[in-house]
């Protein structure tokens, strides 16, 4: 583990334990004779992380949300079915669902797919995704798996 990662773990531990800056520095002085984690050796940083773990710090990251997160398009939205098809193609390609809005913003100047109401733009997007699916050997038909 790099020194930078160890320092990050130390600060995550400090935050997780809700220690004030004074409490944190008192522990550093008592255990290592230093008042800053940046002045500790790598072995001391490992030891400090282990000390935090004994006090209940869990260094496991948050569970990541699934790639196919839900994207809401109201049924009253113009071109509702075409937008659903675009989302299905996007998901089939294995891309993060949040990327569809970024693509719409960059390509069409509209912040969200839901707000994209130009038929030509929707067709352009659908055709591009369709061809990308074909190039990858994926079935781009609406009911294909």
TrEMBL record:
Source organism superkingdom: Bacteria
Question: What Pfam families does the record tag this protein with?
Answer: GemA
Instruction: Fetch the InterPro entries from UniProt.
Output: Phage_Mu_Gp16 (IPR009363)
Name listed for the protein in its UniProt record: GemA protein
